Amino acid sequence: MTQVKLSGLTKIFDAKNPPAVDQLDLDIDSGKLTALLGPSGCGKTTTMKMIAGLLRPTSGDILFDGNSILSIKPEERGAVMVFQNYLLFPYMSIADNIGFGLKMRKVSKKEIRSRVTDMLDLVQLPGFEDRKPNQLSGGQQQRIALARALIVEPNVLLLDEPLSNLDAHLRDEMRVLIRRIQTEMGITTVFVTHDQEEAVVLADKVALLFDGRLQQFDSPDAFYDTPRSAEIATFFGGTNFIPGHYQDGVMKTDIGNFKAPHSAVGDGAAMLSIRPEAIELGVGGDNSVAGTILSHVYAGRYARFQVKIGDLEIEAITEPGQVKLFGDGDTVPVNFAPDKIWILEANSTPQPVGADSAG
């Protein structure tokens, strides 16, 4: 297992444009699965390519177990990258594709055959040795690309958008497989994704990048419950923002005062954030105010309500049966559960997430 440290990592492709990656500091735990998450062009793939040695940083350092690897050739770093488009050799059999790295290392044919069989069992494709890549589905090709990377026993496994080319059902299968293999083998794994759900489901920790800069590096649940900014909160799904003044654990707003024990800021002007699914309709209490239902949508597994409180419109997501209890125009108690409120800086308002010129 290998601990990876990025120190002040910077990549500038064009001096006229902002850095693709800007002063990135990151400690990636040994044996864990870490996601580099962000919108297209935020610098996540550029970061991965620098770890792999496919791009040289403009400045900064990359360390494996405390030792800089910048002067080490890509093929000698012990980091193997699985690309988004698989890059299987079309004219080779599946066995030859998987065993290619061992062949380059002069491993005996007998050992290669044995290890290829083991890898096919690991990725749940036994008996596929003699097939060609064009005889496989996208999900099967992804498994073969993963097996080809794992057979050389890398210290660090790098996955670039590993599930982006798969349909929803296959993505679910591959998530389970990747998580199982990574846990069993204990390989330090970094994967790039723009999909928040994928990052949350797979990763032990998530590094969120906007415009080449690290915004938050945390456990998946922290991005949802305790984001550092409104921009981060919005990136992880819909939320309601209410401006006001925070003091002594109480958020005072134009629509009412709310107990709010959890805050990222001290007393003063602030922004209340609460997820739609944390808002309860028809529930009274100290954190309740009266609201009028403007509209509602039944969506099978849940119901979505637009509610007006004073001059403010908010969204609430409830269990589906509530569409039978409340209709448009009804005035109902709207409860803001104190432990679901998160207080942000007053100037932390959601903005469109930008993109630089590199992925």
Plain-language structure description:
It is a single chain. The protein has 2 domains: 4-223, Rossmann fold; 239-345, OB fold (Dihydrolipoamide Acetyltransferase, E2P) (Beta Barrel), CATH 2.40.50. The chain is built from 8 helices and 20 strands. The chain has helices at residues 44-52, 94-104, 109-122, 138-150, 168-185, 196-202, 220-225, 230-235; strands spanning 4-11, 21-28, 33-37, 59-64, 67-68, 79-82, 156-160, 188-193, 205-210, 213-218, 240-247, 250-253, 256-259, 268-274, 279-281, 288-298, 303-309, 312-318, 331-336, 342-345. The strands form 4 sheets. The chain has a 6-stranded mixed β-sheet, sandwiched between helices. A 5-stranded antiparallel β-sheet has the order 13-12-11-14-20, with no helix packed on it. The chain starts with a strand and ends in a 14-residue tail after the last strand.
